[in-house]
Amino acid sequence: MNLVTPELGLIFWQLLVFLVVFLVLRSKAWKPIIAGLKAREEGIDKALQAAKDAESRMQELNNQNEQLLAQARKERDGILKDARDAAQKLVDEARGEARKKADEDLAKARTEIATEKAAAMAEIKNLVAELSISVTEKVLRSKLDNPAAQNQLVNHYLTDLKVGSN
Question: What is this structure's pTM?
Fold first, then answer.
């Protein structure tokens, strides 16, 4: 039972050793430990502040990036719109020129067709006249070979002249 109930001398020496160790630790170790803990706490505070500053700076950069992206999108849309407008203008101009060229070609073709038609009609009239003269000549020669037919033809024309002049 001696272990469970310590004697007064043992308590005294344990208390004296505890006080000596406490004073030595307080003077030699306690201050550096407290200073180290304070330095560590200050370091942690500085790191937290730096993290907050970095986060706010990152947020600013993100906002600037969003603004730049929005501006770039706006510029891209403007450039695309200008390009579409220019392309449409070129297409419209090309269509207009093609239509104008087609109209000119059509008018030229119509003029050429009319000219060719008139020339063909004149040629046909000449051929018809030549054929008529040729046929008439042949008919007259065959009729004029016969003296009785000549007299009958002259009488017929004279009768026509008399009837036409009345």
Answer: 0.41
Contact yes or no for 91/97 (Cβ under 8 A):
no
At 82, the pLDDT band (50, 70, 90 cuts) reads very high
What are the pLDDT digits (tens) for 156-165? 777 877 765 5
In angstroms, the CA 120 to CA 55 distance is 94
Contact 143, 153 (CB under 8 A): yes
**Do residues 149 and 143 make contact, with C-beta atoms less than 8 angstroms apart?**
yes
Nearest to residue 52, comparing CAs of 66, 44, 37, 65? 44
- The string of DSSP codes covering 122-150 is HHHHHHHHHHHHHHHHHHHHHHHTSHHHH
**Chain centroid offset of residue 147 CA:** 94
Confidence (pLDDT) at 55: 94
Of 141, 137, 159, nearest in space to 150 by CA? 141
Domain extents in the chain: 30-150
Reported as a pLDDT band with limits 50, 70 and 90, residue 143 is: low
DSSP 8-class letter at 166: -
